[in-house]
Design goal:
Shape: globular
CATH topology of the largest domain: Rossmann fold
Helix content: 25-40%
Structural class: alpha/beta
CATH class of the largest domain: Alpha Beta
CATH architecture of the largest domain: 3-Layer(aba) Sandwich
Number of domains: 2
CATH superfamily of the largest domain: LarA, N-terminal domain
Mean pLDDT: 92
Low-confidence stretches: none
Strand order of the largest sheet: 14-13-12-9-15-16-1-17
Number of helices: 14
Radius of gyration: 23 Å
Number of strands: 19
Largest sheet: 8 strands, mixed
């Protein structure tokens, strides 16, 4: 690693002044599901699941997306429900090439989500082999995890939300898990390889329709989170209802999703990025910044510079998305598992997302470098915000210039004060007074 901790760098950046920052809170949707087992039971009764499952039948429960609120509780509730019907549930991974595209790696990912045999009361069966169900209208082989294909029934569980790579009627959710996640690394590679020619949505739509028609899908469990990342809605969708109702859940998810309350920023400081936060490390729907072979775009908010301080513990070294940052720290470079990052970038045809930005030894130097590259802006004119990550947007630190320009009402929790450092690194994101 090349270090820039030398006298020339210090001399260049020593005169940079940082703005004062205030801690604020924005209003986000707070309502959430109180009783997961009860909701699962009510949804199962609504769709008549008991009449569709016979005692002794095997049911594969496909799971894999990270960062979903109370996911383990949802899966355990499904397992208990199926056991009550006399069925034999088991859990398998549906995460494409994640976890290093190995059974061991994907088992570790599930364990990190709290999805273990002991916790779920059901066996885990993780394999990478696939079965071909047919060919989509676009000529792509449609693959399904072999363990899932051999089961009597299949249930897919996923969060429905905006995708970071494309915009369509259906984005990240049940149909994507069917078309990509359940085909393991083979489908993940195929879909991304063909996306520049056909588009992600067209490929997902065509492949998932084949699985809906020819596969053994019992139902999908669509999850929607509120603005605080808590589970807001849980819906069981039968195969014949997914095409109509998943877009409605996506509309709800987009309405509830947290956003930065500013149209323009000079600097966004992001304390952590990671695959447990977003498939792209930091959500492009929040930052408005993307680089991708399917098309680069900059949308609101328009951010001139992004400084990333660290990787999240849950990302396990996968630094995909660091390419969206302009400046980062040596800390991020040290923590990066380059093999995981490279596999993810290659699978998604996204070397841009793994590109390393300028990195410096400390937060103080890295932040100074970030401000230096903006040119001459007085601290009281600098539009700067700091967030923990793109999933945690209720509380923000904002500079003087932003207090009067927010798009939503902001409650000031801590008044303007100098940025706090512990040694040469920023102090931890301040814990708000919740009284």
């Amino acid at each position: 690693m090349i270090h820039l901790d030398n006298p020339t760098v210090h001399a260049l950046l020593s005169g940079i002044a940082f703005p004062d920052m205030a801690l604020v809170r924005q209003r986000l949707e707070r309502s959430f599901l109180q009783d997961i087992p009860l909701t699962v039971a009510e949804e199962a009764a609504r769709v008549g699941l008991n009449s569709r499952v016979q005692p002794g039948q095997s049911v594969a429960i496909a799971v894999g997306s990270r960062g979903i609120d109370r996911l383990a509780q949802v899966i355990r509730s499904l397992c208990d429900l199926l056991h009550g019907l006399g069925a034999r549930p088991f859990i398998l991974s549906a995460m494409g090439s994640h976890g290093g595209a190995t059974p061991e790696g994907q088992s570790q990912v599930l364990a990190g989500l709290g999805v273990t045999e002991q916790a779920m009361g059901a066996p885990l069966r993780i394999g990478m082999a696939t079965t071909r169900l047919g060919t989509s209208d676009l000529g792509m082989p449609v693959l399904l995890d072999s363990l899932a294909a051999k089961a009597d029934h299949l249930i897919v569980v996923n969060r429905i939300k905006a995708h970071t790579k494309f915009k369509a009627r259906v984005e990240s959710g049940l149909m994507k898990m069917l078309a990509v996640g359940l085909g393991n690394d083979q489908s993940a590679r195929l879909v991304h390889k063909l996306a520049p020619s056909h588009g992600m949505f067209a490929l997902i739509n065509a492949a998932s329709r084949v699985i809906l028609e020819r596969g053994n899908l019992l139902c999908g469990v669509g999850l929607v989170e509120n603005g605080l990342g808590r589970l807001h809605t849980l819906r069981l969708l039968l195969p014949g209802d997914i095409l109509e109702h998943e877009p409605l859940l996506l509309t709800l998810a987009k309405r509830l999703a947290p956003k930065l309350p500013f149209d323009e920023l000079d600097v966004l400081v992001v304390d952590e990025i990671g695959k447990d936060i977003s498939g792209t490390g930091m959500d492009t729907n929040v930052t408005g910044r993307n680089r991708d072979i399917l098309g680069d775009f900059t949308a609101t908010p328009r951010i001139k510079r992004i400084f990333v301080r660290d990787l999240s513990p849950g990302t396990a070294g996968n630094a995909l998305g660091i390419g969206f940052a302009d400046v980062t720290t040596d800390r991020v470079i040290r923590k990066q598992d380059y093999a995981k990052t490279a596999i993810n970038a290659l699978t998604g045809l996204s070397p841009e997302k793994a590109a390393l930005p300028l990195h410096l030894p400390t937060d103080r130097l890295a932040l100074a470098a970030t401000l230096h590259t903006l040119g001459a802006i007085a601290p009281n004119k600098l539009r700067m915000a700091r967030i923990k990550n793109t999933n945690s947007l209720e509380y923000l630190q904002v500079s003087t210039a932003l207090l009067d320009t927010a798009q939503t009402d902001l409650k000031i929790l801590h008044s303007l004060r100098a940025m706090a450092f512990t040694g040469e690194d920023l102090s931890p994101f301040p814990e708000p007074d919740r009284t």
